[in-house]
């Protein structure tokens, strides 16, 4: 039976997995407005394909942050203060992106739209990059002292070769995931091109994923601790990736999208599997690691939160799924375009 | 400047900016929900147009509220990590519940509302905006649960040097919360209402779409009247609660250095000399402070000097007097703005009731346009009073602001983030005002038309062509 601390670790992990699966594709679609779309109309179609969803997807990140704060205050405090600068950049990107989606269609001027298009592109590229970097750093270990304070240098501790590969992997993974989502949401030429671009990107993505896991093997301890289960996860990941390529080739778009989704789910899950029972690893001394025990709230708090979360989650999932069902029709130029 | 000061500036800047948009979102969502209800009940297109037109302004505003809200959640950990460790057990829970209960509700159903006009039945679509409105209110409730704990910590026990929750029910029935929540929500309704009356007044002055804006004006002015009076009534209760729970804040609000004596006079204005701890040029109303504090014309209110001595005994040496001038003046700005709004709304309702909106009272209508800013001024100064008046505490009696700051963050990092956020905020503010003015100038019918697809064979385009 899981202890409450373990349950909350799993819940935080699930929230991040959900976030990367969902917002992963809208980051990807955001990026594809810059590289896939040729005309303003195509950009509008792409943005509309995620229009009703992106805001709800982003709430997964907020909820993950809130859950960390409530269940593991020390994790939240060390992580958020330690990664101060990357988080400022992340916030700037998310602020710009959110406003851009809402504002780009409000004025019929080319310069206006082009400006917001740039913001959408950069704002969709930066978050997966930074989050990839942060997650890679988390399993690699960071200079965390006895007082649980992390004093990391920006270049070196936070931005290093390993973490940058992690960030780039996340970017390309989201992009491919987003392109496959596009194939489900649009029609005609745009759909065809999205499929082709996704297939084309699968080779560099495969290279990045392999490089990332090889580097992980050499840069982190997680394979020493949990080699068996991680190998199994990676085996599944390879299968999912291969299937994504096959399905995409056969124009089985839904299945292909599901498979890149599985790759994202397994990648993020492998982070948390490797981390457990730690939540942050100290590169100074493993005795200073933050764990699901020493970083957590008291039993009472976790109990209350568990009751609240378990009674609300079914409703949240229910209406989110319903909203995808309401907007299941493809977006095309002849339809109602909001942005 | 040190990290504490910079982090405080950062917090103040981001929070005040965020709070320009939040009450407007809460208020407009509620008004739009009412308008769309009228559409569904009465079946008249003009109410639908109303929901759509005010919906445009709502969405422009909501976008900034949402994106600046992400920062609000993150900055506790980023800038105030020691604080987050100390109270995370108690303080984190309402924030997590806010995300789970309110943010998902708002964002999902707002998406459905924006894109669902043609996809959902009338009633389901109406339900969406009500759920958005409820979501915004839930959101305010949970964030105020967290804030009330900072004002009056309850439902916790100290364990290993940090606060741990031991009574969730006590947190959500905190006496502070039971007043702070209605005060804030009513202020938010008032903010939305005065935006709608102000914009309507402007259009009525211009004689554009008179019927449309007259109706909007009437709906909003009634809500504005009820909520602005409500805010004041609850505010009065709150002041009395403050005398009991945070007497120092109340004393600073009144710039009361010495004990007031019985009965206590209310200082309307004064020159405050914080160095010598006294005031000059006071203009006072006798008995009034006793009434404000106890709802009767007798009773003494404690002054800052005595409270300072008392706190030193209780908490050790230190300065427990908050910035007096800021607290004093922000309170007066809040009360003055609120009082004006009550007067305006009463007169507005009178005009509407006598059907005198037709031969509009020009100077009054102009005043209504300017009064769009008054609720925002009142909201901001109200929060400044609440938060500055609590200093030096971040959690009253438990932790000082200086102790809550992140030890691992440098002044340079915070300065960099202030510059980054303030510049992006400045840009956003300009863009938002520009878009607001654009939508208002175009008016409701241009806005509705604009949405329609240009393709004549499209369902919407066709309907537009024959209508």
UniProtKB/TrEMBL annotation, chain A:
Principal location: membrane
Where is this gene product found?
A: Cell membrane
UniProt-listed Pfam families? Cyt_bd_oxida_II
Q: Does the keyword Cell wall biogenesis/degradation apply?
A: no
Q: Does the keyword S-adenosyl-L-methionine apply?
A: no
Give the GO terms filed under biological process for this record.
Answer: aerobic electron transport chain
Q: Which GO terms describe its molecular function?
A: electron transfer activity; metal ion binding; oxidoreductase activity, acting on diphenols and related substances as donors, oxygen as acceptor
Q: Name one GO cellular component term.
A: plasma membrane
Q: Which UniProt keywords apply?
A: Cell membrane, Electron transport, Heme, Iron, Membrane, Metal-binding, Transmembrane, Transmembrane helix, Transport
What topology does it adopt in the membrane? Multi-pass membrane protein
- Tell me which domain of life the UniProt entry assigns to the organism this sequence originates from: Bacteria
Mind telling me which residue stretches traverse the membrane in this protein? 6-37, 83-103, 115-139, 159-180, 201-219, 225-247, 254-276, 304-327
Query: Which family, according to the similarity comment?
Result: Belongs to the cytochrome ubiquinol oxidase subunit 2 family.
* The protein's name in its UniProt record: Cytochrome D ubiquinol oxidase subunit II
User: What is the originating organism of this protein?
Assistant: Paenibacillus azoreducens
Task: Identify the coding gene.
Answer: cydB
UniProtKB/TrEMBL annotation, chain B:
GO biological process terms, semicolon-separated: aerobic electron transport chain
Give the stretches traversing the membrane: 20-41, 53-71, 91-115, 127-150, 185-205, 217-235, 329-351, 363-385, 414-437
Q: Where in the cell is it found?
A: Cell membrane
Q: Domain of life, per the record?
A: Bacteria
| InterPro entries in alphabetical order | Cyt-d_ubiquinol_oxidase_su_1 (IPR002585)
Cellular component annotations (GO), alphabetically ordered: cytochrome complex; plasma membrane
Q: How does it sit in the membrane?
A: Multi-pass membrane protein
Alphabetized, the UniProt keywords read: Cell membrane, Electron transport, Heme, Iron, Membrane, Metal-binding, Transmembrane, Transmembrane helix, Transport
Q: What is its main location?
A: membrane
The reply on keyword Transmembrane helix is: yes
> GO molecular function, one example?
oxidoreductase activity, acting on diphenols and related substances as donors, oxygen as acceptor
User: Is Transmembrane given among the entry's keywords?
Assistant: yes
Instruction: Please report which protein family the annotation says this sequence is part of.
Output: Belongs to the cytochrome ubiquinol oxidase subunit 1 family.
Q: What name is this protein filed under? A: Cytochrome ubiquinol oxidase subunit I
Q: Which organism is it from?
A: Paenibacillus azoreducens
Q: Which gene encodes it?
A: cydA
């Amino acid at each position: 039976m899981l202890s409450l601390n373990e349950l909350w670790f799993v819940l935080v992990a699930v929230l991040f997995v959900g976030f990367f699966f969902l917002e992963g594709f809208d980051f990807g679609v955001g990026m594809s407005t810059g590289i896939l779309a040729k005309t303003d109309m195509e950009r509008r179609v792409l943005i509309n394909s995620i229009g009703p969803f992106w805001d709800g997807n982003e709430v997964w990140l907020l909820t993950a942050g809130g859950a960390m704060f409530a269940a593991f205050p020390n994790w939240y405090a060390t992580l958020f203060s330690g990664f101060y600068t990357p988080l400022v950049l992340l916030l700037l990107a998310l602020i710009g992106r959110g406003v851009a989606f809402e504002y780009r269609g409000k004025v019929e001027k080319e310069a206006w739209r082009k400006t917001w298009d740039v913001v959408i592109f950069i704002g969709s590229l930066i978050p997966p990059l930074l989050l990839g970097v942060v997650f890679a750093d988390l399993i690699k270990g960071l200079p965390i002292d006895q007082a649980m304070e992390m004093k990391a240098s920006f270049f070196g501790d936070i931005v290093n070769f390993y973490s940058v590969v992690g960030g780039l992997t996340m970017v390309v993974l989201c992009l491919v995931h987003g392109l496959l989502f596009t194939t489900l949401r649009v029609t005609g030429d745009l759909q065809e091109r999205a499929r082709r671009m996704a297939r084309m990107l699968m080779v560099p993505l495969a290279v990045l994923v392999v490089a990332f896991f090889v580097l992980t093997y050499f840069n982190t301890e997680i394979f020493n601790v949990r080699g068996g289960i991680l190998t199994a996860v990676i085996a599944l990941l390879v299968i999912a990736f291969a299937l994504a390529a096959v399905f995409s080739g056969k124009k089985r778009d839904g299945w292909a999208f599901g498979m890149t989704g599985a790759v994202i789910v397994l990648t993020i899950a492998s982070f948390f599997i490797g981390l457990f029972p730690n939540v942050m690893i100290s590169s100074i001394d493993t005795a200073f690691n933050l764990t699901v025990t020493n970083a957590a709230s008291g039993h009472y708090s976790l109990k209350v939160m568990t009751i609240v979360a378990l009674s609300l989650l079914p409703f949240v999932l229910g209406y989110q799924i319903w909203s995808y069902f309401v907007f299941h029709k493809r977006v095309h130029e002849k339809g109602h375009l909001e942005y | 400047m040190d990290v504490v000061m910079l982090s405080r500036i950062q917090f103040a800047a981001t929070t005040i900016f965020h709070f320009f948009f939040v009450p407007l979102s809460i208020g407009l969502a509620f008004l739009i929900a009412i308008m769309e209800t009228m559409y569904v009940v009465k079946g008249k297109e003009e109410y639908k147009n109303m929901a759509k037109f005010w919906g445009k302004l709502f969405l422009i505003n909501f976008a900034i509220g949402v994106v600046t809200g992400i920062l609000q959640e993150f900055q506790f950990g980023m800038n105030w990590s020691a604080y987050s460790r100390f109270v995370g057990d108690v303080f984190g829970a309402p924030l997590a519940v806010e995300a789970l209960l309110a943010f998902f509700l708002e964002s999902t159903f707002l998406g459905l509302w924006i894109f669902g006009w043609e996809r959902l039945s009338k009633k389901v679509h109406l339900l969406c905006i009500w759920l958005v409105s409820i979501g915004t209110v839930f959101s305010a409730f949970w964030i105020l649960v967290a804030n009330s704990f900072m004002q009056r910590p309850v439902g916790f026990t100290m364990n290993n040097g940090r606060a741990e929750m031991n009574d969730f029910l006590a947190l959500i029935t905190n006496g502070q919360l039971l007043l702070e929540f209605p005060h804030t929500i009513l202020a938010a309704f008032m903010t939305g209402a005065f935006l709608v009356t102000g914009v309507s007044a402007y259009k009525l002055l211009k004689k554009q779409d008179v019927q449309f804006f007259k109706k909007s004006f009437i709906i909003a002015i009634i809500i504005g009247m009820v909520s602005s009076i409500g805010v004041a009534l609850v505010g009065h209760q709150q002041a009395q609660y403050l005398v009991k729970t945070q007497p120092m804040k109340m004393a600073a609000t009144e710039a009361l250095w010495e004990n007031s004596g019985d009965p206590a006079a209310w200082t309307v204005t004064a020159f405050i000399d914080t160095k010598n701890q006294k005031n000059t040029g006071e203009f006072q109303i006798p008995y009034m402070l006793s009434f404000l504090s106890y709802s009767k014309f007798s009773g003494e209110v404690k002054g800052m000097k005595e409270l300072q001595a008392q706190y030193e005994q209780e908490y050790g040496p230190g300065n427990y007097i908050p910035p007096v001038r800021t607290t004093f003046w922000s309170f007066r700005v809040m009360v003055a703005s609120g009082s004006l709004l009550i007067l305006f709304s009463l007169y507005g309702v009178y005009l509407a009731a006598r059907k005198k909106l037709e031969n509009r009272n020009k100077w009054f209508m102009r005043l209504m346009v300017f009064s769009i800013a008054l609720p925002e001024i009142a909201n901001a100064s109200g929060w400044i009073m609440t938060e500055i008046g609590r200093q030096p505490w971040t959690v009253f009696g438990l932790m000082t602001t200086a102790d809550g700051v992140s030890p691992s963050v440098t002044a340079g990092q915070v300065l960099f983030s202030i510059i980054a956020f303030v510049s992006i905020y400045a840009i956003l503010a300009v863009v938002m005002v520009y878009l607001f003015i654009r939508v208002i100038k175009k008016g409701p019918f241009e806005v509705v038309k604009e949405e329609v697809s240009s393709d004549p064979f499209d369902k919407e385009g066709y309907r537009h062509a024959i209508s």
